Each structure stands twice: as C-alpha cells, then as structure tokens.
Amino acid sequence: MKAARWPALIVIISLLVAAFLFVDDHSATPKSLAPKVVVAGPTVAKADSMSSLWFCNGGTALDNGVADHQVVVVNTTAEVRSGTITVYASKPTTGARPEPVRKTWTLAPYARSDYRLATLIGQAAYASATVEVAGGGVLVEHRISGPLGVDRAPCSSSASGTWYVPIGTTNTGESPVARELLVFFNPFPGDSVVDVEFSTDTGFRGAPELFKGLVVPGGSVVGVDLAKAGVAVSAEIAAAVTARSGRVVVDRVQVYDDGQARRGIAVSSGLGAPAPAWVFAAGRVGNGRQERLVVYNPGNVRAEVDVEVRPQDTDSRAVEPFQLTVQPRQHTQLDLHTAPRLAALVAAGSEFALVVRSVDGSSIVAERQVLVTPGSPGPGVGVSTGTAVAATRLFADVADADQPSSALVLLNPNVETIARIKLTVIANGAVSSPAKYTSIELAPGARRSISLRELGQGTFTVIVDASSGVVAERELVGANDRSVAPAVPDSASLAPFVLGGLVALGS
Predict the structure, then answer these.
(1) pTM for the predicted model, two decimal places
(2) Range of the structural domain that residue 59 is part of
(3) InterPro entries from the entry (predicted)?
(4) How far apart are alpha carbons 43 and 225 in whole angstroms?
(5) What's the CATH number where 227 sits?
(6) How many domains is the chain built from?
C-alpha cells in the first residue's frame, strides 16, 4: 500500500471504531450478565494496533492569545512510532479559511514531542489538529497557555455525533470576568450540521437561533464565545450538542479573570455519551479550595442521582450521600465546599473520592470544577470529566511534578476485589519503575494519593498497571495555575466496576 493512503485508512478505521464505541442501549444490566463497556472519553490504542487517530481541539493560534494551543505526542512503547499532525484554522473575519498544514513526525521509543499550532498554521482565532499514528501505544495531550495561566488535558480519540459539556460560566461587559468558548472541530471532508441546547441556572433554555443547524464545514474549526454571541449569560451553563449530519469534536475553554475570586483557564473535551455512574478520584475541600459538581441529565425523564463522598481515611465517619433530582435536559450543581455535611472534611482539608450514580437506571453526565482562589496555595481553576469505566492499564502525562501539591490519585472502585498496582515512569527517552511503587495494594474501595515528585521531576508520563480495574486522576499545580484530568485508559484493558451492589457500565 502506498504511504499516501495511510491517513485515509487511519480515518476510516478510527470512525468504524468510534461508531462501535458510542453505541449505548441505556438499559439496566443484571449483575449476572456480562456488562457492556461504552467509552465516552479518550483511550490509548493498544500497542499492537495498526493505527490510531487523535483530535486536539479547543485552543487559539494568536501571539499573546488567551489559549495558545500546543499538542504533546508521547510514545509509550519500546518501538519507533511515526505519523502525521495536520493543523486546521478557523476562518478569518475577511478572506478565505487557511488550508490545513501537514507535518510528518517520528518518535524514538519512549520519546515525546511538542508542536505549537501557531508555528505550523500561522495566526488564527482558533486552531485544532489531528494526530495520525501508524501503530498504537501513543498518548496525545494538548496544552493551552496565556496571560491567565496554563491548562492541559488529553485530546479526544474519537469524533461523535453527540457531546455533553456540563460546566460553563459567562457574563458580559467590555472586559468580562467569565467567558466560555465552545469550539467545534470537523476534520472530515463533508460538512456537519449541529444543534446545541443549553441549560442554565434558570432551567432549560433550548437551542438559540445561532445553534439551530449550525454548520461546521468540512476541514474546519468554528469557535463561539457564548456571551459575545449573545447565546447565554449565566453563572451556570450546560450544553448538549447533537449532530444532524456528520461527526465533530467539541471542546470547551473556560476563562476566569475576576481579581481575588477566580483567575485561570481550563480546557477539556466534552463527553460523548452518558452513563449510569461516574467516579472522581481526586477530591478535596478546604484551605481556599472549592469544588463544584455538575450533573446533567440528557434524557426525557427526570433522573434520581446519589452523590457519595468517600473519604480517603477509611476510619473517618461516613458521609450521608447527597440526593439530587435532575430534570430532563437540565443540570444540577452541587457546591461541595459549602455543604454543611462536609464541614468536618472542609475543616480538616481531607481528601476523598466522589461516586455519582443514578438510582433509577438513568444515564447521566458528570463533571467537576476545582477552584483555588488567588492568595491561597496553588491558585487556579481546573475542570475534570468523570470516569465511568475502570481499566487495568492507564496513562497519565504530568508536568510541574516538583510542586508538593501535584499528585496522582489512584482509586480501586471495586468493593469486592483487591487491586495490586505497579507504576512505571517514562522520562527523557527511558523507562523506569520506582522501587517504592512496584507493588501497591489497594483494598476494595480504597484510594491513595501519591506526590508526583516521588516519581520524578519536570514532565514525564506515568503508566499504571493493575491486577483489576482501577481509576486514576492527576492534579498538576503550578505557581499560578492548576490542572485536573483523569488518566487515559488503554483500549484493550477496559473493565466495568462494582460500586457496592451496582455493576457500573463504562462510559
């Protein structure tokens, strides 16, 4: 086969895989039946895959821009990997849309490479990229940076016809202190047409005119500043994207700049499917740290949801679950840092995991915001999507590892099985296993936080291998920014988890 055919082949294979992964029957599954795993977040293609494809969306390509976009490619295997990065830019106010720019790349075993999109495509209000890989075992993340800070998150490994973005905030003014940017990326030849519905703190808003049949042309990036477009102005905004035709990738960039209350930027992909249960490993409140959980119900009937707070200290007094009723196509926000029943955890600055699950069989979407106010240790804002599938192998790319608050948090969500875990570190083109972490044992339901500076310095990648399905989340703390994101599972290692009598099907 000619080399020029590889990108097309990769796209076709990836779309077929995506079509399979996003099938969800939304039905309750008896524990006796083999549960079906449905993946909504990114996965790393298994090492012996023929090819893999990543979509990196949600950034700018402007000098001194608010979210300068950079793509990070990591080879986690012992073999050479090669591929192509293709950069797409948004259409300028006047003139034609720039043609996509392609660049081939090769990575030695355990090597990494960074690509600033503005360097490749030139100046553009928004810029996105696809990363095509001949083979598997390659992790791709993206990083945004600007005057308000830095954030990083895994890129998407699938396009979808459905996306959910539970968390958002906007307001108006010449210098708005809160902005939400929704970015739509269509790298495929054909146009995609999408509808976007919104839920705010006043209830269901439906689809504004701008988002009724929004056309995302093939090979393009379309970004919308919600407040500037007059779409929505609210302290709480949840969005649901449905494609009438084609598939897209949707990311959100949240920008805060209101002095001593909130300052920072956060990027993350939407979630491609709902699930009955979601897990967040890295929870903590107190000492200036705020946490907000948003649960969105994409269904047509109300959802009854329990939110369980599981302290890391198993001797701590059990916390009564929060009971939420989420109306159809609306969201509910839970401010954990002000909840009276968590007062003891707030006072102690205790760590915990969150388990969010419907009690009536509904499929829901959950996302969490972490905010540390300026003047407190590690100020900044981060947004983390939940994890609804466990895995026996996960990848976490990390930075700011020398900061004492930067951590990798491991959680064994299974209440019936002990998980035995080994950590491997990829750094500077080499692989090593820290002696202290070659054999970690997590009891059923247990959680453990590991300081990243015990694993290395600067920037590196952690591989988590476990005897049974686990969940991991990394939190990176810089001088003036904060980033939270779940670890990315290996596509061949996905596993459902048992949350105290419930078999949670992955999402």
Answers:
(1) 0.90
(2) 3-22+36-154
(3) DUF5719 (IPR043777), TM1070-like_sf (IPR036698)
(4) 29
(5) 2.60.290.11
(6) 3
Shared-domain flag, residues 463 and 421: yes
Rounded Cα–Cα distance for residues 234 and 490 (Å): 37
Does the residue 366 lie in any domain? yes
> How long, in residues, is the chain?
507
User: Which residues, 6 or more positions from 441, have their beta carbon under 8 angstroms from its beta carbon?
Assistant: 418, 419, 420, 421
Task: Kindly calculate the radius of gyration of the chain based on its CA atoms and give it in whole angstroms.
Answer: 21
Which two structure tokens, joined as six digits, stand for 424? 């491997």
Q: DSSP secondary structure string, 133-147? A: ESSS-EEEEEEEEET
For residue range 27-58, what is the model confidence (pLDDT) as tens digits?
Answer: 333 443 345 565 779 999 999 999 999 999 99
Same domain, 77 and 145: yes
In whole angstroms, what is the distance from residue 232 CA to residue 205 CA? 9
Tell which of 248, 269, 290 closes a domain: 269
Q: Are residues 309 and 400 in the same domain?
A: yes
Tens-place pLDDT, residues 350-392: 899 999 999 999 999 999 999 998 887 788 999 999 998 999 9
The span from the first CA to the last CA of the chain, in angstroms, equals 35
Whether 209 and 289 map to the same domain: the answer is no
Give CA–CA dist 41/75, Å, rounded: 20
